[in-house]
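Researcher: Re-running this chain for the archive, since the previous output was lost when a drive failed. Same request as before.
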Amino acid sequence: MQQLTLFDFEELQPPVEYFPNFLSATTANELFHYCQALNWQQNNITLMGKTMPVPRLECSYGDNGCNYFYSNSVLLEPLPWTAELLELRSLIQSTTNYRFNIVICNRYRNGKDSIGWHADKEPSMGKSPANASLTLGSTRKFQLKPNSDGKSTDLWLEHGSLLLMQPECQKAWVHQVPKTSKTVGERINLTFRPHIKGIKIN
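Model: Regenerated structure tokens:
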């Protein structure tokens, strides 16, 4: 695995840092194929009283007891770390200087799969969490916008790249991966996050 140049986002305002080609092409390809065999689940989510399938596949790996509960309806219970994911976590932690004890995995099978506007600020992550998002597979549009207005910044996250969202990002910004009518291939996203163990999940 090889860390390359940090892309500078100073003019774009979002409190994020982008590492293009964070992984070498060979490593990214190998990891992409490996992640296709993870324990993917089709979960259901309840929004505004209506239950429907989550528009992507999900799974999680992490430290024992680090359950992740979002939208008051979806519970991800982490499987034990694999050697490959632990190696990746170590590289990301040494690069970002943040510690993570869970990875949330999302599999976008085509342009119909998506995730809507949200902030990663579940209580289990603690206050002002940083997270690091690795992209594998097809490039997809990733959008950020401040809570104060509707103007968004569009980023195109490429195969093998890493996006670090600084702690202040979740307080003042929301983000999404929108649906697209264009023909796109599969994308796997691995988001490494902190977790406060022992939090009560109702």
